Amino acid sequence: MNIVSIIEHKKNHQSLTKEEIQFFIQGYVAGDIPDYQISALLMAIRLNGMTPEETFALTDAMIQSGDVVDLSSIEGFKVDKHSTGGVGDKVTLVVTPILAALGVPVAKFSGRGLGITGGTLDKLESIKGLRVELEMDEFIANVQNANIAVAGQTANIVPADKKLYALRDVTGTVDSIPLIAASIMSKKIASGADGIVLDVKYGNGAFMKTEEEAQTLGQAMQEIGEAFNRKMKIHYSDMNNPLGRFIGNKLEVVEAIDVLAGNFEKTSKDLIDTCVDVATDMYNMATDNKPTAREEVLAVLENGQAKEKLFEMIRLQGGDVTDTVMNDVAYKVAVVADKAGVVQSIDAQQIGEVSVSLGAGRLTKESVLDFDAGIELVVKDGAEVAVGDTVAYLYANKEISAAIVEQALRAYNVQ
Q1: Same domain for 191 and 139?
Q2: Of 81, 82, 188, 250, which residue is the catalytic one?
């Protein structure tokens, strides 16, 4: 067996065997197979696809490339969630404390943002002192004591994915459903949860542009999870408009806390509905479809217990709970409507690009974030505006150019 024959097989539309998949994953992680040969194989997979059996074997080989987290010392059904990413997506910050307040242990490994998609770890690190790099003993102890921990993955969880994703990112092979499914599910399975709720986004602000593409990806991930004996639930959500009213790391923390405190008037219905739906799915999974699941989710928002769980997690991870408010910024610029009408939509892709330009997101892994930078959407889709009305505010600690303001205004489709 050799890598050239494996490339030839996939190039010629043949299914790869479990042994061939294990061979190339093990060889690549060990450094025995060079990038240029794996690049050729990835492109063949991107063009010719993989069967469900191949995708399962790829996921399994990637899991076996590193450590698997053992959560057996934590009592109860451990439930995890994953979002495929979007603009203004702070759902993890809301749903994990809800589940913890309801007595369900949540041991959550999250990631950082790159490009227009924000990362949960970046949002948490906008809180002074908060640590997201936890030793496994501390991570498990926090879940045992408070039902909640959100941290970065250890270096040796699915190392194959780290190498493969970096290569896919620069070879035009990111948009392959088998490769996306194996990437996400290898990390979720290796993270040790008993059940997984996947929030699959679609639209111009998401990776999957149509609902049909999202459903194809969701189905592939569900099949993988069930093959590994995990309970699975797929939630689909629209990312043609940004989620919530705020985009940016500290701004999204503040908005999440408003949801957790039941201050629904400070946010928007789309964010509330998504958070309640995902949290209800997670709670149903952990309780075998408890009839009062949705009512109990809403109750811990209204009585403040969910907010207190987030604050408990912040304190346990070294964070300052008083630093969960909007900071003063050097520049705050209004975006003003130049015509009257009804806001038909807000282009999430454009808004995401504006947030990156302001300093809220990364263009490269080395980019330094401005945690205070971001966007406040004063009005959202469906709102009526007149000429001169403020539709958004831009925040940054550097001067905001007229071109950035103009791009933010172009994101608003007013008819």
Answers
A1: yes
A2: 82
